[in-house]
Design a protein that fits this description.
With about 500 residues, the chain is an all-alpha fold. It folds into three domains: about 230 residues, Hypothetical protein af1432, CATH 1.10.3210.10; about 140 residues, no CATH class; about 100 residues, no CATH class. It is about 60% helix and about 0% strand. The strands form two sheets. It has a two-stranded antiparallel sheet. A two-stranded antiparallel sheet has the order 3-4. Helix 19 crosses helix 21. It starts with a helix and ends in a 14-residue tail after the last helix.
Length: about 500
């Protein structure tokens, strides 16, 4: 499918210095190749998805394998939609849906995720705002956008990955800044779009999720300019919506798959939760929120809280019949299916996992549709109601039986402390006048880049540039590099020359 002529021409050339020969060979495929060839993409193999790649003793998803699978699902969705006559005209009206654009955006969407996954994201955001004085703080999606637009240094210039405007627009799951773009800001809408709401425990912080820092705002505007008049200022492009949906699908399936492999998901505990709710749903619905919270460990209570949460947050699609059907379907597929046979590493068990993953992926891809006027909390591309509820239940299983575990909390608290100590150590190094000539070259370059981005009259310009450089530097480390660098800075490493790889 071809997007409308004028927007397509502008999307091909926008923000990308390419020759006519490059354009003839599909600039969007060239974008995909640039992303995959980037060291930032290779780095994702050493970055946590949920559990550190070396911490489980088994092969689990990391950010690289997750990104590859998101790209696979996203392309399947785009190809299905563009082959469907019922969707083609609407897709054209909204700005087009090119499978190459979708795939490239999916491959790039996690480039900015720091060491230790979402935990690292929260820790760096807190440190950036409270310790380093950065109003924008840190956000993984905004960091990904920063990487492809500015922090990939080539020679004397900082050119990013030189991606087309279409792919950059498709990366923007949250096409707004933290506080002030667009105007009015989407966090002020009622309800706020997904990700735009302000955290209740930090009301002055701005949106919880956002797609670009203020330093990349001009680039964001330029990337989305072809879509003006087609979608609202705060809405995802269709291609971004496909990528976002694919990310949700991959997350729901593959995290369950991972923790079945590791042995964390046990049939008995998952069955007890789901089946208790099925038996007692009538009684549980009559229990007050306060009483339900006090009975948090009672089987069935947690999933009843999920049902209520969905009604509060997403009443536009939440449906009790669909929720009950989703619980039953997940019970059949997961409790009586996948978890009935403990994973033992055999070829048979690997095939069992592969069939489970393929069956769910096909089910979700086939349930994708396009709507012209989505709800505020939805994109133009979305799952049908039954499958939307199934994704929520699968994600619940992961949150309830993995993320809430005390042993994982113990592991993550250590990682949080490590990142905090590393940021402080790098700040001390930057502030030491006798060590300026011996700073890591990458850190030195990032300070210069951040300083050049700031207006000359910016208050504490040098301090803010140093803070952003530290955040950029730490966010570009793998889990292992973060550990090794802190060991070296703490004097715990005896391997002098091999420590240089993190510099």
């Amino acid at each position: 499918m071809e997007p409308p002529a004028e927007p397509r021409a502008r999307r091909l050339f926008g923000g990308s210095a390419r020759t006519l020969g490059d354009l003839a060979a599909s600039p969007f495929r060239a974008d995909r190749d640039r992303i995959v060839a980037s060291p930032f993409f290779t780095r994702l193999g050493g970055v946590t998805q949920v559990v550190s790649p070396g911490g489980s003793g088994l092969l689990v998803h990391n950010r690289l394998t997750h990104s590859l699978k998101v790209a696979q699902v996203a392309r399947a969705i785009a190809e299905r939609l563009t082959a469907d006559d019922t969707h083609r005209k609407l897709l054209e009206k909204l700005g087009g849906c090119d499978p190459d654009v979708v795939e490239a955006a999916a491959l790039a969407h996690d480039l900015g995720h720091p060491p230790f996954g979402h935990l690292g994201e929260r820790v760096l955001d807190r440190l950036a705002r409270q310790r380093l004085g950065l109003t924008d703080g840190f956000e993984g999606n905004a960091q990904s956008y920063r990487i492809v637009t500015s922090t990939e240094i080539r020679g004397a210039a900082t050119t990013g990955l030189d991606l087309t405007a279409a792919v950059r627009a498709a990366m923007l799951k949250y096409p707004w800044t933290r506080l002030d773009h667009p105007d009015p800001h989407p966090r002020l809408l009622d309800p706020a779009p997904r990700g735009a709401a302000v955290p209740p425990d930090d009301p002055d912080s701005g949106s919880a999720k956002f797609g670009a820092y203020r330093t990349e705002l001009d680039d964001l505007r330029q990337a989305r300019e072809p879509f003006v008049g087609r979608i609202l200022d705060w809405q995802q492009t269709v291609e971004a919506s496909v990528m976002d949906t694919a990310d949700d699908v991959a997350y729901a399936i593959h995290d369950v798959e991972d923790f079945y492999r590791v042995g964390v998901l046990q049939q008995g505990t998952v069955a007890a939760e789901l089946m208790a709710w099925q038996r007692e749903s009538g009684h549980l619905r009559a229990v007050t929120d306060a009483a339900l919270a006090t009975a948090a460990r009672r089987p069935g209570s947690a999933i009843e809280r999920l049902r209520r949460h969905l009604h509060r947050k997403d009443g536009w699609i939440a449906d009790d019949e669909a929720f009950a059907a989703a619980v039953e379907h997940v019970r059949q597929e997961l409790v009586e299916g996948l978890l009935a046979l403990p994973f033992d590493g055999s070829i048979e068990s690997e095939q069992y996992v592969a069939r489970f993953s393929a069956r769910w992926t096909t089910r979700f891809v086939d349930a994708i549709t396009v709507v012209e006027q989505p709800h505020l909390r939805s994109g133009h591309v979305l799952l049908a109601c039954p499958q939307w509820h199934e994704v929520q239940v699968l994600k619940f299983v992961h949150h309830r039986f993995v993320l809430a575990r005390p042993d994982l909390a113990l592991h993550q608290r250590g990682q949080a402390r490590l990142l905090g100590t590393l940021v402080e150590a790098l700040l001390d190094w930057l502030l030491d006048p006798e060590e300026e000539s011996r700073l890591p070259r990458r850190l030195h370059d990032l300070v210069e880049l951040a300083e050049a981005e700031l207006h000359p009259r910016t208050p504490d310009r040098i301090g803010r540039a140093r803070g952003r450089a530290i955040v950029d530097f730490v966010a570009q480390l793998t889990d292992g590099q973060a550990v090794a660098m802190l060991d070296a800075l703490s004097g715990r490493s005896g391997a002098l020359w091999t420590d240089a790889f993190v510099l």
